[in-house]
Design brief:
By secondary structure, this protein is mostly helical. About 75% of the residues lie in helices and about 0% in strands.
Length: about 100
């Protein structure tokens, strides 16, 4: 699984957030199925363990999706308040010099 490029501005962050939030249930199930199949093949196609691979894939992808959304939220706030943070920093430098 490859991760997307990190967004570089507020608009890009908002677009990525919208993309992640619009994943349909059917699409999500399809992604899990493909990931589980890939892992099952890598393990030598063991018989009778499909549920094990499905649950592992779902947990792994859910964790990755959650991390991606948290990262996007952090970037959103970083970009949204970058100018404010810079102004506060500059003011602090003037006051405490």
């Amino acid at each position: 699984m490859t991760l997307p490029e990190a967004p570089t501005d507020l608009a890009a962050v908002e677009a990525q957030q919208a993309k992640y939030s619009q994943i349909t249930h059917e699409k999500w199930e399809s992604v899990i199925r493909e990931w589980a199949y890939r892992k099952w093949e890598e393990a030598g196609r063991p018989h009778g363990r499909s549920e094990e691979f499905w649950l592992a894939a779902k947990a792994e992808l859910s964790q990755a999706r959650h991390f991606a959304l948290l990262t996007l939220k952090a970037l959103y706030w970083q970009y949204k308040y970058e100018d404010l943070a810079q102004s506060v920093f500059e003011l602090g430098n003037k006051v405490f010099r």
